[in-house]
UniProtKB/TrEMBL annotation:
InterPro entries: Homeodomain-like_sf. Residues 145-188 are annotated as: Disordered. It comes from Rhizophagus irregularis. It comes from the Eukaryota. The lineage of its organism: Eukaryota, Fungi, Fungi incertae sedis, Mucoromycota, Glomeromycotina. Residues 152-188 have a biased composition (Polar residues). This is HTH myb-type domain-containing protein.
Amino acid sequence: MGIPKPKQTKKTQTNQIKMKSIKMKSIRKIKLIDNEIIKFMNENKNERNPYIKASEKINKGFTSKQIRQRWISKLDPLLSHEDLCENEKLYIIEWVEKYKNKHPSNVINWKQLIADLKIKSGKMRSEIKVKNYYYLKERQKKVLPSKVDVSPQDNNVPKSVPSSPQDNNVSTTVSPSSKDYNNNVQERQVSEMMKIRNLIN
């Protein structure tokens, strides 16, 4: 059973409207900046250090590193933004495992993986998409327990489920009141508004 939704007050409704308008303004501003980056990179992509020059020309508070990251992860027209197919997913896992066996330093050459993946599948993928997929699979391996959880004393007997929270030293918590919930929501909304304002300014 979830936490009941609190009744919205006029203040929370006003804050939500303000946040939506701020978000819309920031989205429009980001689209304008993206268009400037695309235009500049298409005209100057063969130059040395185009990201530094783009940062100087655009001059909207973005560093060359931020512009480079935006270009290689989102804006480059060569990138394929569709989901990874099963063959690509398998290739990424196999490639990293082979690479780790050859290079025990635990530093993965992602650029090489992306180049090999492009040759294999014919699609250019962003480094972020490939890394996110690989690390997600790694986390899932570590978190997911086996189907049958056995006790250390007897490998053939499954663990018993505690009948009450006190049997397993599990604390019982009371859900927060709607007033606490409203305060938390308002605090999050204010912090989001501040982040968006900082991004716009």
